[in-house]
Each structure stands twice: as C-alpha cells, then as structure tokens.
Design brief:
Number of strands: 12
CATH architecture of one domain: Sandwich
Mean pLDDT: 84
Radius of gyration: 40 Å
Structural class: alpha+beta
Order of helices and strands: HEEEEEEEEEEEEH
Strand order of the largest sheet: 1-2-4-9-8
CATH topology of one domain: Immunoglobulin-like
Shape: rod-shaped
Helix content: 25-40%
C-alpha cells in the first residue's frame, strides 16, 4: 500500500512540477526589489549565444506577487565593455485583446554580437515610481552571453563578429595593396604618356625629314635648270 501511494505521488507530482516551471519566469534570471515592485531580469533565450537574436526580458510583480501590466515608459540600455546601446523600449508581451502573452512580462529585442557579461540599465517609471537601476550578468545573477561556436555542429563556422574582426585586421594590408596598385597604375600611365610623346615626336621628325627631302629635291632640280 505504501509503495502504491509513493508511485501515485510521483505520478501526480510530475505534472504539477511541470506546471509550476512553465508558469515561472525562465531560469538563470536575477531578482531585485525596486520600491513597491519586484523586478526579475535576464535573457529571454538561454543560453544566450553571440550573434543570435535574443531579448532582454523583464518580469514586474507588485508586493502581493501579482504581475503588473500596462507599463509603457520603461526603456533599457545595454552596456558591454564600456560601450552603450541606444535606449530600447520594453514592450509588454501580454495582449488583452487576444489574451496571448505573459502578464507582467516586458521584452526588448536585441542581437548580442560579442560573448561576455552585459549590463541592463532600466529607466522610466512604474505607475509613477521612478526606475533607474542596473542588472549585470554573472555567475550569481543571469547568464552571460557565450560564444555560439560552443553549440555548433558538425563544423564550427566563424561568427559575423569574427569575420568583422578579421576584415579589420586585413584592412591595412588591403589599403597598402590598393596604394601600390594606384602607384603602379600612375607609373604605367606616365610611361604610356612618355611612349605616346616619343611616338609623336618620331612622327613629327619623319614628316620634317620628308618635307626637307622634298625641298632638297625641288632645290636641286631648280639648280640644274638654271645651269642649263
């Protein structure tokens, strides 16, 4: 009887656990009390891979744990290695007309292009309460962005960021080659111009020689006639 009850409890516990997990915010998020509200922050898609579309995800709950809808002033600024993004609007995912989306969830789409730790800087207000706070990824908060190559199979292709870095490193060589080609082209043009000038002078010389030859013949004939 005890064994039967244990099996029955396990069977009933599984769907309950699944329901709880599906209703809760995604794992690897961090929580912080913001005045009268609790913020739960992290990446919408985890693990977050560099170069892959993702979303800054924020859940807002009141003191009683109820999700807060209808916030339209919150913005988020992403900070990475001293660089700051433009402020992005946090869009509520719940649609009251269709009933789709999650109550109290707000997202901002972004593509993190480098692996590492990111800071989310939220500004705005929630029902009149000013918000100006930062959340930074770490081992104890929410997940950092990881290199997409760690999940690639069968081949690990270079990411757009790696291709951009490679292009940046090669740019000086490209500029040097372009300058050398331009110099060679200029030299070739100069040589062509010189050759064209020499050719022109040769033609002029030939014409002058022909004219002088004709004049010499004409003068010689006149001299003979005068002699006769």
């Amino acid at each position: 009887m005890i064994r039967l009850l244990s099996r029955l409890t396990a069977v009933l516990a599984a769907p309950v656990a699944l329901l709880v997990l599906s209703a809760a915010p995604a794992l690897a998020h961090t929580e912080k009390q913001e005045g009268a509200y609790k913020f739960t922050v992290g990446w919408s898609v985890e693990p977050a891979y560099s170069g892959q579309p993702n979303r800054v995800q924020l859940f807002v709950h009141d003191a009683k744990g109820n999700p807060v809808d209808g916030i339209d002033s919150l913005k988020v600024e992403l900070i990475f290695s001293g660089q700051k993004s433009d402020p992005l609007a946090m869009q509520g995912t719940f649609d009251p007309d269709s009933g789709e989306g999650a109550h109290g969830e707000y997202d901002a789409s972004v593509i993190p292009t480098r692996p590492g730790n990111y800071t989310f800087h939220f500004t705005g207000n929630v029902n009149g309460q000013t918000v100006d706070d930062q959340f930074t990824s770490s081992d104890t908060t929410f997940n950092p962005v990881v290199d997409a190559a760690s999940a690639q199979f069968p081949a690990k292709d270079p990411s757009p960021a790696q291709l951009a870095d490679a292009a940046t490193r090669l740019q000086p060589r490209v500029d040097t080659a372009a300058a050398a080609a331009a110099s060679a082209s200029k030299a070739a043009k100069s040589a062509k111009d010189s050759a064209d000038s020499a050719k022109t002078l040769s033609i002029v010389a030939i014409v002058v020689a022909v004219v002088l030859g004709l004049l010499a013949i004409i003068l010689a004939r006149r001299g003979r006639r005068q002699t006769v």
